[in-house]
Write a structure and sequence with these properties.
Organism: Methanothermobacter defluvii
Strand order of the largest sheet: 2-1-3-4-5
Largest sheet: 5 strands, parallel
Pfam family, one: TfuA
CATH architecture of the largest domain: 3-Layer(aba) Sandwich
Oligomer: single chain
Number of strands: 5
Radius of gyration: 18 Å
CATH class of the largest domain: Alpha Beta
Protein name: TfuA-like core domain-containing protein
InterPro entries: TfuA_core
Number of domains: 2
Helix content: 40-55%
Shape: elongated
Strand content: 5-15%
Number of helices: 10
């Protein structure tokens, strides 16, 4: 199975360098409308969709993914655009992986705004924080007693009001009306224990595709 042609679209959620250390594949920038059609010209066996553009240009179309599935290509998605499209197309055969995919599938989150981030077009690194990770970390802080219920609601209201390219923890903490000592405690918690859900799910996508391609074999 070592001759599998694998194309994976990723960017801010997981760097090409980190992903390629786990799985050798053709790594490409966040997917746009038409990219799957172009990829199909190379007869891939597996297509992975992690990141995709949302607002800068037309998003990847459902039809091009469906066409790939109908032609026997395994399409796996998770973490960001991949999670959203997988939740919409799971009944047609697209495979979804990870916590964010499950949240979309179960209707816990519905908007692309929940996973959208701004990224540097040169190196594809994220420039903002995703709402889905922000909410996850704030809920953990709430359970730990770092923040209280009113603080949690204020922080989430503040986060939702900030346009996604500008959304990050420091801006949220600056704008939220919560006590300064709570802000300091939360910042310490986020710096020491904050988790990036999109990155975690992206890693799960890469491992899932690796297993699909190689079974129990190692990469080497």
């Amino acid at each position: 199975m070592h001759g599998k042609k694998i194309i994976i679209f990723t960017g801010p959620s997981l760097s090409h360098l980190e992903a390629s250390a786990i799985l050798e594949a053709d790594y490409r920038p966040p997917v746009r409308r038409g990219d799957i059609q172009e990829a199909m010209k190379e007869n891939p066996d597996i297509i992975g969709i992690i990141d995709g553009v949302f607002h800068q240009s037309p998003a990847v179309g459902h039809r091009e993914i469906i066409d790939a599935l109908r032609k026997g290509v395994k399409v796996v998605g998770g973490a960001s655009m991949g999670a959203l499209r997988a939740s919409e197309l799971s009944e047609l055969g697209m495979v979804g992986v990870g916590r964010i995919f499950t949240s979309y599938l179960e209707g816990e989150i519905e908007s692309d705004d929940d996973v959208a981030v701004a990224f540097n077009p040169e190196n594809l690194e994220p420039l903002s924080d995703s709402l889905v990770s922000i909410e996850f970390n704030l809920k953990r802080a709430l359970r730990r007693g770092v923040i209280g219920d009113p603080d949690f609601r204020e922080l989430m209201d503040t986060a939702r009001k900030i346009f996604y390219p500008l959304r990050n923890y420091r801006r949220i903490l600056h704008e939220a009306r919560i006590p300064d000592d709570v802000k300091e405690s939360l910042l310490l918690f986020l710096e020491s224990e904050g988790r990036d859900l999109k990155r975690e799910d992206a890693l799960e996508v890469i491992h899932h595709i690796r297993k699909l391609a190689y079974g129990s074999e190692s990469k080497d």
